[in-house]
Amino acid sequence: MERGKMAEAESLETAAEHERILREIESTDTACIGPTLRSVYDGEEHGRFMEKLETRIRNHDREIEKMCNFHYQGFVDSITELLKVRGEAQKLKNQVTDTNRKLQHEGKELVIAMEELKQCRLQQRNISATVDKLMLCLPVLEMYSKLRDQMKTKRHYPALKTLEHLEHTYLPQVSHYRFCKVMVDNIPKLREEIKDVSMSDLKDFLESIRKHSDKIGETAMKQAQQQRNLDNIVLQQPRIGSRRKSKKDVYTIFDTEIESTSPKSEQDSGILDVEDEEDDEEVPGAQDLVDFSPVYRCLHIYSVLGARETFENYYRKQRRKQARLVLQPPSNMHETLDGYRKYFNQIVGFFVVEDHILHTTQGLVNRAYIDELWEMALSKTIAALRTHSSYCSDPNLVLDLKNLIVLFADTLQVYGFPVNQLFDMLLEIRDQYSETLLKKWSGIFRNILDSDNYSPIPVTSEDMYKKVVGQFPFQDTELEKQPFPKKFPFSEFVPKVYNQIKEFIYACLKFSEDLHLSSTEVDDMIRKSTNLLLTRTLSNSLQNVIKRKNIGLTELVQIIINTTHLEKSCKYLEEFITNITNVLPETVHTTKLYGTTTFKDARHAAEEEIYTNLNQKIDQFLQLADYDWMTGDLGNKASDYLVDLIAFLRSTFAVFTHLPGKVAQTACMSACKHLATSLMQLLLEAEVRQLTLGALQQFNLDVRECEQFARSGPVPGFQEDTLQLAFIDLRQLLDLFIQWDWSTYLADYGQPNCKYLRVNPVTALTLLEKISREMRDTSRKNNMFAQFRKNERDKQKLIDTVAKQLRGLISSHHS
């Protein structure tokens, strides 16, 4: 039962579903009926559905038939009307066909024209497209042509800029063209070409700079000298006229050049021609001589190409090599000042270029790199100057070298380089300069002393007198009162030497200029050098003159007088140095002049030489002595040689009137003592083995002549009988033998007031033995004791007794 109900329910559901599908088919568009039919076939009752569908179709056919039957008459009427219309339509068709034929015939030319117009429009469109494409490509081609022109004219930095625009702006717009691909492939090669060519230009620039560094340095040093001259003028009057272009002005010019995208000069000459500029009144700026555009271009090119570090390293390496070449001095640099000047010019030129590069480029060189190069240059320059300046023997060359070094230092100091070591080194050269000056003045003093006549300077007029006084500080009221002609006490070498000392001081002062020394330091330097001149150079020159073999007593006397006046002039030299250095002598640590000591030593040497010379002259006269020691004749006058000797001494001591009193007295006493000693030696000479009392008498006459000379006072100032004491030894000895007063001698020997106090027993014994030998020689017929032959034995016995007693005195004295 239940199964029946369930089957009935399913049948109702199926029927309802089929009804829904049919309604959907009827109401749905034919294009969308597929899904509906698919739902029928998906089910299991499609047979029933087909039945339902057939039934529905039959129903619709019946309705259509009913409708057709209802509208049949209207349909027939419509067909009739349609047939009528067909006839009319045929007529219309014929008319249209005819009209079309006529239209086709008439429009054939128009069609041809339209076809031509179509082709023209197509060509016009193609031309317009071609023009647009060409307008797009033309800037690329123009830029490439411009690039080629710039490469050809060596405008490499603009070419690089053009290449950048071409690559990044123009080529991307036309990248689909084949020629663009060729250009793109060629761009790296062009960059390398620009890089290589710019590097070649840089190499040419560096080589040109190396060759012309001396010219650049010369100009910079002229500029510094010109500025220093202007500074000196400014100290006295305001600056007038045109001013020199400053370093800052020069940098401004070059900064403007760098900021420009294209350098002003496209020719990489490196050095501008300045030969015609040398005659101009204004010296051009050192940097004005150099075209730095190759450096700037190469730097910018390498910066753009991303190889700036490579460029910086290469530039610094090459400049270091050039620095070492510049700092290598020529082997003969010391021979002339031009050698030093060229050496300095090259160094200055090198660092002027580097300083300009430092201030006009960003990072190509830095301060540390410049300082490193300068330290190396400073050490090598100072070492070279020390070596080569040591060969200089000309003080003028050393002074010129000093001025050149100062200018060199001042020039580099303008560019900010520290130069203290150069000035320290100049202080070392100062000592060498002093030595060369001393050598030069040694020759000057030698010439003055050799050419001097060693005679007082005669003057015959007031002008001549004032001229000498103007050359040498001398004041003598007595001499001024004397009428002309008159004579100065000193010879010509006094004012000449005095003036040469002043010239030496001036020469020392010249070296101290521009060394940035204080007045005290300059004063100390001058005084020390002057002391060396006085104590060493002048002293040696005077000593050499004094020690000459052929120097005469007159010359020695004049030297003593001259040195006395020079000694007095030392205070004027002190004042002279004080005036030129403005340092008072009372200042602490001020060096004193040793001129007084120098002239005193020279005077003492001259005095000693006078004493020695006098003694030598006395010896020469004594060599003429020809005593006959065996004579028995008693003479009545002094020997000729001794008379001549006394005459010589009188004339000599007459010349000593201008000498200080003690010098003349000492010379006279020394001569008398030497004469007495020489006569004693002559009497006791070992070669004279025998002598007679007659010869002793003649010798006594000669001694009396000497005593007479001593009593006559050849030199004033001696106390009474003081000069005679020089002959006291001879006098007592001769009196002892002539008076044969042996008893008194032997009895009073050793007593402080004995008569023969100055007779030495040894001397008495020696002379007694000579007389004894003569007495024993019986072969001589003119023996004085021959007439007393009967007393010979007693006399000889007495002599032997005296000799024995003398030997006893000698023995007791030695014990």
TrEMBL record:
Gene3D superfamilies noted in UniProt: Dsl1p vesicle tethering complex, Tip20p subunit, domain D (1.20.58.670), Exocyst complex subunit Sec15 C-terminal domain, N-terminal subdomain (1.10.357.30)
GO BP annotations, alphabetical order: Golgi to plasma membrane transport; intracellular protein transport; vesicle tethering involved in exocytosis
Keywords, sorted A to Z: Coiled coil, Exocytosis, Transport
Keyword Coiled coil: yes
Exocyst complex subunit EXOC6/Sec15 C-terminal domain span: 421-770
Chain ranges of the Exocyst complex component EXOC6/Sec15 N-terminal domain: 52-221
Gene Ontology cellular component list: exocyst; plasma membrane
Recorded coiled-coil stretches: 82-109
Chain spans, region Disordered: 259-280
Pfam families xrefs: EXOC6_Sec15_N (PF20651), Sec15_C (PF04091)
Transmembrane segments: none
Superkingdom of the source species: Eukaryota
Record function comment: Component of the exocyst complex involved in the docking of exocytic vesicles with fusion sites on the plasma membrane.
Family, as annotated: Belongs to the SEC15 family.
Protein name per Swiss-Prot or TrEMBL: Exocyst complex component
Source organism per UniProt: Neovison vison
